[in-house]
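Minutes, project check-in
Item: structure for the 294-residue chain
Input as provided by the requester:
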Amino acid sequence: MNGPNFQLSAADFPTHRLADPNNRNSPVLFDIDNVTGSQGVIPSNFVAIVPGSAVDAVIFDGPDPIFSIGGVNVRRPTGRNTPSNINAVFNFRNFWDGRAQNDFNGVNPFGSRDPDARVAQVNAAGGADLVTVSLNNSSLASQAVGPPGNDVEMSAAGRNLADIGEKMLTLQPLGTQRVSATDSVLGPYVSASGRGLQASYADLIGQAFQPEWWNSTDILTDPVTGRSYTMMEFNFSLFWGLAIQTREATLVSDQTRFDRFLGGDNTALSSQEKDGSAALAARPVASSATAAPS
């Protein structure tokens, strides 16, 4: 009713409004059948990073046969809702279809299933060699490198995480965001203006990762795109995946009522819940292992 690519505001919610929100039988003041969900991007093709700019050079596609209104392209919705990050560190694989492998190859979600995935490592002469890595119990890292280059979710078609690294390394971290000087993690890095950080992304990568993964002057060429990158740009997918995994690994609901019960608080569960827990604990364990889904 508001046309393609309309920007929603707080006034558009809720989509079903009652005269008395606490009384489901009160008169309906407003009701529409619109559904709001996670939005993707307008279809486009990547051309190049514009150094120092948060906006890439892209070529927008012509009218999409499905996601357009009156010849105007609209943002495409993603295929699935996002699973919760809470306790996701305990998942053997991630994404609803399990494609984010338990072993992280430093490049994409597919782990050892992609034998061509390579990252750069400094050699004895100070140059950079392309090597394979396999980091077990890292499906969160495998998941994290999927969306940024996805041409429905977040990206123009043809852009990868090395391109994103090329852009990010020219920008001020959190440059448009006000950061509190009292923040327990970011406080020491706040810029004098109070917006963004005084440390660059290169500084932060250098502090968090061993020099063998970024400290070379070699220029590396992506064998798929033919584009060239510094070593830090080339390995940006490795840094991105591991950094996000480290953060998400802290999102654990370890103070539930069940946790308190296991910690000795006998009042944390109801009698019915205790009976259910006891029945579950007494259940026989299957003798044969079940293979992980492929």
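Outcome recorded: Helices lie at 139-144, 161-168, 201-208, 231-234, 236-248, 257-262, 271-282.
No further action items on this chain.
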